[in-house]
Specification:
501 residues; flat
């Protein structure tokens, strides 16, 4: 990147990443807001909110944004306390109940030792041993015109482990429900930020079994960067820095870039690409010369006669990532390269599914279909990247595998787990018969006229994120590696379940 682009990228990064971490920054942090989730927490009469998101998808930013909005008086009727729990745990040690002292007693030694990692718009001095007692004392001390309290706990599972986190949250959620049942009031709302992993589903199920009333008093939601969040980020840049940024929202290719970026899941990936695209446009507009500095350059570009050149997605992202995001899975510098990436990614997925590194090379039929026969369970794992799949496609592709492996007449039925992108058109047939005497007869001369093979079909649609995870496993860095691994592991678990269903 040029010095001009580097400077603007740093400028934009500091407006968000540096300012959001400051307790009283000199100017408002520029953040795209998750407005629906914020409204949910503020307006729904529930005390408990579990928000899950992939690594880097904005959990910490969401919590700190609530703090800054409350600090600036934009959240009426609430104070906000955000605890960066893993840092606090390192500072205070002890068990998870020590957090109650950190949250509610700001005169405590635990609070003083960890104050650096606590963002609070209020000062409390409550001594209490349980969340129920803390809620009761807070409710009694704040007065009728006092504010309710939103407590945001970030990285709880990193600090205390999943088992302790699950047990404690079930206890706390039960206590907020008990307090509501006793008083009809919700003085404290708990917002728990957790990674998007299967353990969150386990938490929900365990809570439902342990206390059904606390379960219905709890919202489980996904926090996900979408196009609305990105547009809000651009508008915030325009509102709090320079109106020139709003001009990006009228550029055709830039708007296309926003749609492409949202499936990347992680803000640690999305925003660097987005900032680079804006920086390239600004620097192209000024001939890569920041005369008078960045702010003066932006003022000049905000003049009515100034214009921003558009930036194509291909200037900041690789073609295959763009293709997958836009439903064109073989868009790359060459089809051979795209096939190689998909085949490698599918192979890695199959290794996770079969829980072994030693698997036969999956078979490729044409350039759109990849199949791994698992003859131990009489199953075919089939990834198809076709736009349209019909009964004829199934008979043709699976029929070739059946012929090559001489399965007709040797096994009565074959289970087929068909993976396909959500942009594909697929009829959900329950089963199909392959045989020389059937409508879908194979063309093999060695097939006996009476031989038949029943295909039991199981389907799994792949989201764009899951397709990007497979591509990432294939060598194209489309997702954060930690996110790709989680998605692939969960997809492998789904395939295992389909094989035995």
């Amino acid at each position: 990147m040029s010095a001009c682009i580097d400077a603007i990228v740093k400028y934009l990064k500091d407006l968000t990443d540096t300012l959001i971490l400051a307790k009283a920054p000199s100017q408002r942090p520029v953040v795209g807001e998750f407005k629906q989730l914020t409204e949910l927490i503020l307006n729904v009469s529930k005390a408990n909110y579990v928000l899950e998101a992939h690594t880097g998808a904005g959990k910490t930013t969401f919590g700190l944004t609530l703090y800054h909005k409350a600090r600036l008086g934009e959240i009426q009727g609430y104070d906000v306390i955000v605890i960066r729990t893993s840092y606090v745990k390192n500072a205070i040690g002890g068990g998870i109940d020590e957090l109650l002292k950190v949250i509610f007693n700001h005169n405590s030694d635990q609070y003083r030792r960890s104050n650096e990692y606590i963002y609070s718009t209020t000062s409390l001095g409550l001594e209490c041993e349980s969340l129920y007692e803390c809620a009761n004392k807070y409710y009694s001390s704040r007065g009728k015109n006092g504010k309710d309290l939103i407590v945001v706990l970030d990285e709880l599972e990193l600090a205390y482990g999943w088992d302790t986190t699950t047990d404690t949250l079930i206890k706390w959620f039960s206590e907020t429900r008990k307090f509501y049942d006793t008083t009809g009031a919700i003085p404290i709302k708990l917002v728990i930020l957790l990674p998007k992993v299967i353990r969150v589903r386990d938490l929900a199920q365990n809570l439902q079994r342990a206390n059904p009333m606390a379960y219905v008093f709890t919202e489980f939601r996904e926090l996900k960067i979408d196009e609305e969040v990105l547009i809000d980020y651009i508008n915030k840049l325009a509102n709090y820095t320079s109106s020139v940024f709003r001009g990006f929202l009228s550029l055709k290719e830039f708007k296309r870039l926003l749609k492409i970026l949202t499936p990347l899941q992680s803000g640690r990936w999305i925003f660097p690409f987005l900032r680079r695209a804006m920086a390239k446009s600004i620097c192209n507009a000024v001939g890569n010369q920041l005369k008078g500095g960045i702010e003066e350059t932006l003022r000049a570009l905000a003049a009515p006669e100034a214009s921003l050149p558009d930036v194509r997605a291909e200037e900041v992202l690789d073609k295959l990532t763009i293709g997958v995001a836009e439903g064109m899975p073989f868009k790359a510098d060459s089809r051979a390269y795209a096939i190689e990436v998909w085949l490698k990614g599918f192979t890695e997925l199959c290794k996770k599914t079969l829980e072994t590194q030693e698997i036969p090379q999956p078979r490729r039929i044409g350039f759109q279909d990849f199949i791994l026969p698992n003859l131990r369970t009489n199953t075919l794992i089939w990834l198809s990247l076709r736009k349209t799949i019909n009964e004829s496609t199934i008979l043709g592709v699976v029929g070739k595998i059946v012929k090559d492996l001489n399965l007709l007449g040797t096994v009565p039925e074959l289970k087929v787990v068909l993976l396909y992108p959500t942009f594909s058109l697929v009829p959900l047939l329950q089963d199909v018969i392959i045989g020389s005497g059937s409508k879908g007869a194979t063309k093999s001369r060695s097939t006996k006229g009476t031989a038949q093979l029943k295909l039991i079909l199981r389907y799994r649609a792949l989201s764009i994120e899951e397709c990007l995870a497979i591509v990432s496993e294939g060598g194209v860095i489309s997702l954060d590696k930690s996110i790709a691994d989680i998605i692939i592991n969960e997809l492998a678990d789904d395939i295992k379940a389909l094989q035995v269903r």
